[in-house]
Every structure is written in structure tokens, then in C-alpha cells.
Amino acid sequence: MAAMRTRLSLTLSLYFARNFLLQFAGVFLSILLVVLIGDTVELLRRSASHEDVGLQTVLAMALLKQPNMAQIILPFAMLFAALLSFTRLTRTQELVVTRAAGISVWQFLFPALMCALLIGGFRVTLFNPFASILTARYEFLERTHLDWSSNLLAVSDTGLWLRQSTPDGSSILHAQGVDQTSQEFQGIIVFLYNKEERFTGRIDAMRGRLVPGAWEFSDVSIRDEGQQARLLESYRLPTDLTLENLQESFAAPETMSFWELPRFIEILEHAGFSAQKHRLYLHSLLASPFLLCAMVLVAATFSLRLTRHGGTLAIASGGLLVGFILYFFSDLIYALGLSGRIPVTLSAWTPATVSLLFGVSMLFHLEDG
């Protein structure tokens, strides 16, 4: 008899899981298709003034952008899929029969929660690295064809490397690090090039800082090509950079793999820069499987009440509204984390934790099994 119950439980679990996954696949692909069409139209609009950007390039860019968009819409798809799945099972009385057989709400929610957890784990460990590569390629094409920028920035173990345009050509700047307190760059070397990209000289400076319209160096040695070095107390090199857009020029966290983020954060902080954005993104990735589980619980809170209270459209709409509020509430929390008003870890984990607590508490309140 015990073996029969185990067999029945496994059969029901597989049935509920299959139903949920089919709903999720349909909803997820439908939303992604709508997003793809919208992104394609927007890229066509942006490329209208660039005669060298053809339709093939626009379509390639739109497709490259979709893996990152898929990660963004994933909680919405999970919420919609759970609502549709549970609503269907409730309206067909399948859940009523299941409850009559002695199966509790937590037992028939378990397959959907496990699916959400596995999808979230797959997203973080396998899909995110794949999406980061394509997102980096998309941003390169966007910068090349639609939003050309002359400043290229990179951070490595050796410090900061920056390429920028100057009135006389271009320059490559290397700094060993940045003092966060004084916002001074230390151990600076600048390689100068003319408009034909031919090397013309080098600047060495003990310290430097960004002031409006220029780099201001102290304790400077300037060596023009074929000439003796000149020692100066200070020197100004024109630039259109500011500390704000310099910080924004670092590789976006979306272009970095989950496995690469901890190392990049370490390098960024060692160089003296803030890694708040990247640390927040890393913790939000870790919290995302639990956010997906929370979306399932929120959907269950509303859709499982249909047979008791009626008003299918009103209750389902309430579920969608609460889900959107919980999800978009995370934007406010993330903004507080980025501004340093609350710890980054707390900011990243709060939306998933609050959503989980809401779903669990509502189910305990509404269900007796």
C-alpha cells in the first residue's frame, strides 16, 4: 500500500511538473517573441540615420540582445506560467480531486517549486555565461554602429588602461590605482599618438586627477620623440572624461559571466574603484532562483482560491498586480543599494526574501492543508 502511494505521488508530481513546464515554455517564448519584435523596431529606428547599418546587422543585434532580455523577463514568465497552470488545474477540478485524496497544497506545489529552482539554477550557472558573451558582442556592435565612442576603458591586475581622443590625436593612459579618498590616480604613464596613430611621446607622472576638461598631472616627466625628457611640476592633458562617465565606462555586469564576476570585482576594488554595481548584480543572480520560487507562491496564493471565491478574472488580475509590485519593488531596493544607503547584499536579497515570505504567509493563512 505504501508503495502504491509512492507511485501515485510520483505520477502526480510528474504530471504537475509537465503541465507547469509546458505553460512556462509557451509563456516564455511568447513574451520573448514580443520583445524581439520590439527591439528590432527600436534598432531600425535608431539605425535610420546610419546609412552603413543594414537590415542584416540590425537583425543580428536584435538576436544578440535576446539572451539578456530573456533573463530580465524570466520572473514575469514564471509568474504568468504559474497563474495559467494553477488556474487551469483549478477550473478543471483536478486540484479539488487531488486535495480530496489527501494531498496538501505544499505537496502539489512542490513540483512547480522544484522546476522554478532548477530553471533559476540553470539560468545562473549555464545560461548567464552564454548570455554575457552575446551581450558583450551586442554592446560592441552598438558602440561601433549606433553609439560610437572614442574612449575605451579596461581594468586588469596591472591597473587601469584607458584610450581617449585628444585634439592632436589620441593617447593611452595607464594608472596603477586610484585613491578613493582624494580621487587621485597614481603611477601614471601616458603614451601619445598623432592623428595618423604614430607614437609621438610619453608622459610619466606620480599623481593625476580629473578636473573639468583635462587631466591634471603632478611631478611630471615629458619625453617627446627624439628629445630629452622635460621635468615639470604640473601638466594638463585635455580630455572630455569625468569621474562619473569613467566609472560608467567599466564593463557592464551583464557582459560578464557569473563565474568571472568575483574576480573582476576583486580587481576593480584593488584598483581603487567602486564595484557596487557588479557586486549587486552578482548577489541578484544568486538570489534569482528564490525569486522565481516566490513568483510561483504568489501565483498560487491567488489562482488556488478560484473555486472558493469565484471571480476568476478579478482574482487572477490581483495576482498579476501583486507579482508586478513585488518585482518592480526590487528596482527601488537596487537603487538604494547602488547609492550606498543600504548594504548591497541586503539590497540584492530583499526582493526575493520579501516575496517568499509574502507567498508562504498567504498560503498558510488561506489553506488548511
TrEMBL record:
Keyword Membrane: yes
Entry GO terms, CC: ATP-binding cassette (ABC) transporter complex
Major subcellular location class: membrane
Top-level division of the source organism's lineage: Bacteria
Protein keywords: Cell membrane, Membrane, Transmembrane, Transmembrane helix
Protein's cellular compartments: Cell membrane
Record-given protein name: Putative permease
Species the sequence originates in: Oceanibaculum indicum P24
Upper taxonomic lineage: Bacteria, Pseudomonadati, Pseudomonadota, Alphaproteobacteria, Rhodospirillales
